[in-house]
Design a protein that fits this description.
The complex is a heterodimer of chains A (236) and B (493).
Chain A: E1 2-11, E2 14-24, E3 29-33, H1 40-47, E4 55-60, E5 63-64, E6 75-78, H2 90-100, H3 105-113, H4 116-119, H5 135-148, E7 153-157, H6 165-181, E8 185-189, H7 193-199, E9 202-207, E10 210-216, H8 221-235
Parallel strand pairs in A: 3-8, 3-9, 6-7, 7-8
Antiparallel strand pairs in A: 1-2, 1-4, 4-5, 9-10
Chain B: H1 2-15, H2 17-21, H3 23-55, H4 60-82, H5 100-110, H6 119-123, H7 125-130, H8 132-135, H9 138-165, H10 170-188, H11 195-207, H12 213-232, H13 236-239, H14 260-275, H15 277-297, H16 301-304, H17 307-326, H18 337-342, H19 347-368, H20 377-401, H21 424-428, H22 430-447, H23 450-466, H24 468-491
Classes of the chains: A alpha/beta (236), B mainly alpha (493).
Chain lengths: 236, 493
Amino acid sequence: MINVTELKKNYSGRTVLNIPSIHIGKGESFGLVGNNGAGKTTFFRLILDLILADKGKVQSKGKDVAKSEGWKHYTGSYLDEGFLIDYLTPEEYFHFVGKLNGLSRGDVEHFLEGFKDFFHNEIFSKKKYIRELSKGNQKKVGIAAALMTEPEILILDEPFSNLDPSSQFQLKQILKNIQQNKQMTMLISSHDLNHVTEVCERIVVLHEGEIVHDLQTNENTLKELEAYFAVKGEKE
Amino acid sequence: MTNIFLYLQQKRTFRSSFWQKNLILNIVIGIFLLLMLTEILFIGLFLEQILIKTGNGVSPELILNKSLIYYFLIVFVMRFFIQDLPTMEVSPLLHLPLNKSRISLFLNYRSLLSFFNFLPFLLFLPFSIHYLPLHYPVMTTVSWFLAVFFIEMSSNFLLIRIKRKSTITPSVIFILIGIAAVLFLLEKYNLFSLSTITSWYFGHLLQQPLWVLLPVGTACFFFWENFSYTKKHLFLEDLTKKSKKAENLSSRFSSLENRGKIGALILDEVKLLLRNKRSKQMLTLALPIFLLYGLFFYPDPKNMGHPILLDFVGIFITGGFLITYGQYILAWESRHFDFILTSNIKTEEFFRAKYFLMTIPTLILFLVTIPYVYFGTRILFINFIFLIYNVGINAPLLLFMASFNRKRMELDRGQMMNYQGVGINNFLNVIPLLLVPVLIDLLLNLFFSPTVSLWIIFGFGILGIIFHRELIKMAAAFFKKNRYKIASGYRNT
């Protein structure tokens, strides 16, 4: 589904990402972990063609993302507030995204019905603009909008941070369902090793822009990761 | 403790990205400011002569006393639109062991730094040093100047008190225009003249200097009022208070939504314009100024003989929206630009929506300006030619130039005197948008009659309209080449 070759990104002379090759298959659930500055967001931005790679390319369904716009039809993503239109109310935002993806108003409302619990009545009850919502609620809106179009590829940056405990739990259920259906290729990054090992079948550890581990999740993965980061913490 | 505030303030000013990134722009603005200040100072220095010349034997101070009220009112109105509330990043200080009254005091002192508060020194101090002492005791001259100064102080504190409570809405502007019209009519038919107010007050002041206590008292009162108000309202929820009322107007355009993706994009942008402070001010303040431009020029028969001048006015009047809005055609959406880039929108569709957003209002504005035909059918003809030129050439040109504008634009602050998100190229844009068509007309005039020249310009515009799809495609392709740079510029906070 996603093929990365010789990918390299520098910022002011420093290499922040260097991935010789990685392949992410269809229906795979791919977790990206690493400390701050490891290059997680840079990697996602490269996949989404938001920044220019200094070398190499990212292919989505065999096509270079920098050269065609086709991937936009089947990719849903939420990285940060730059993906939200903050002067819209959440309803307007969902309908706008729906419109761009050819969903009818009914489709959108039907989808949102399924997210009622996740939203806790906080998002739609008041007539508020997105800019007036809390960080956590903004994130929920962004994640839901990314999921709404039932994309073939889903990319979420730190989906669990800023969410309250019950929302974290609910989001985990949602993502697990996606993983089991095997319809969506899912790429998420997280600082929370617990969550990411529960949701993802494959975990990649980035350190200073390089892939240092590429694991298939099993019952020992969490311990391995904890051990790795504990040592890293002591060294630094 | 004041030192700490000053320290923070200074750091905030000089470390803002605005100072660091826009050196050339700052120099340009600096030169303009300097020019303006010297002009004002010159007026101040020659005020005495000006008043003697225009006075027909009436002594200058009496004329000045009469006209001061207009000065105060004009400055107040200008303050209303331009002067910002003194803001400080107060929220990170609230939890620290700092005295609230200190913070509040400092906030109010800061408002004194406004440009308008220094104007009396430039305009009236030379007069009161040079002229008044020749005719009045020193005490009187001192108190005359102090009275002017403290009236301005009252105006300063009254204004920020008003601004803390309310924001500028279109209805406020209409009320102000209404009041101004009533006053104008009263003056015109000699029913009541505002000038009697200041001439009465300053007349008494020149006899009895103690009258100065009146404005001093008023200024102190407004200062105290402000101080206690801010002190009482130094809480997070007050500082971040936002209008709870959702804007409704744009939902009336919802039929647009059924017009496919481009309709949805246009509707979204209409919401952007109506729901953010900066764009709202653009629509309610900048736009009327462009439209009224004709009133400055058309009434004077001398101007009617200058075809080039009329060209300029024509471009301005029909292109007011195009220029103010189109200059930032992409930057308006800079805060969610990553969304635009990753969404299921083709760049060309996106640009086509932008094209309609520029041209449809331009057409409507032209209809609004048709009454200028009162000043002659020639005016209507010129404006129509430049309407076509604006739609055909300038609108696609702005789509091209959008790729050069890579500054993130914050929308929650007012438009006036706000140079955030403005780059040097926004000034350079004027050349292709305004100067080029006028130069073309000048050049054509060498060979053809003025009317034929205008028809040729019309031809250019029509060509632009016929080939608008191709032009949009080219602009979109140019954007695609530059998209990474633009997006990373917009991501920069």
